[in-house]
Every structure is written in structure tokens, then in C-alpha cells.
Amino acid sequence: MRTIIHLDKKYVSIWLTRLEAQDEKVCESLKPIFRDFKKQGYQVVVFESGTGELVELTKCLLEYNAMH
């Protein structure tokens, strides 16, 4: 798990590996983090590693955004 606090924009990004995202104990450990940062006026965002092909999915996302 990697946590990055963005002081200027008042949000926290938490990055989880696939294994961490599937681990109930890790997910439970996020609750106090959410609570503590919410009290300070921060938004918490959790990113989970996926199972798709990164290059292909990124290409599709860029193509979609270029059309819209």
C-alpha cells in the first residue's frame, strides 16, 4: 500500500496492489484512515491494481477521450 497526501488539493490517494485489494485486513485498515482524513477535510481516493492489459486499455481510453 502506498499513500500520498496532496496538501494543496486536500485529498489523499491510496494505491493498493491486487493482493492488498483482496485482503480483508488491508481493507479494514483503511477505515480509520478515511475517518481521520475526513475530520481534517480531506477526500480519500483508493486505486486498486487491475487485471487488464495496461497499454491496450490506456490506448482505448485515449481514443475514447479524443472522440468526445
Q: Can you describe this structure?
A:
This protein is of the alpha+beta class. It has one domain. Helices cover 51% and strands 25% of the residues. It has three helices and three strands, in the order ββααβα. The protein has helices at residues 18-22, 24-39, 54-67, and strands at 2-6, 11-16, 43-48. It has a three-stranded mixed beta sheet. The protein is flat and about 40 Å long.
Give a concise summary.
With 68 residues, this protein is of the alpha+beta class. It is 51% helix and 25% strand.
By DSSP (H or I, 4+ residues per run), the number of helices equals 3
Oligomer: single chain
Structural class: alpha+beta
- Give the integer mean of the pLDDT values: 94
Radius of gyration: 15 Å
Shape: flat
Helix-strand string = EEHHEH
Which blocks of ≥5 consecutive residues have pLDDT under 50?
none
Number of domains: 1
Arrangement of strands in the largest sheet: 1-2-3
Helical amount: 40-55%
Beta percentage is 25-35%
Report, as a whole number of angstroms, the end-to-end distance: 34 Å
Would you report the number of β strands? Answer: 3
Largest sheet: 3 strands, mixed
What topology does this entry show?
Layout (H helix, E strand, L loop, with lengths): L1 E5 L4 E6 L1 H5 L1 H16 L3 E6 L5 H14 L1
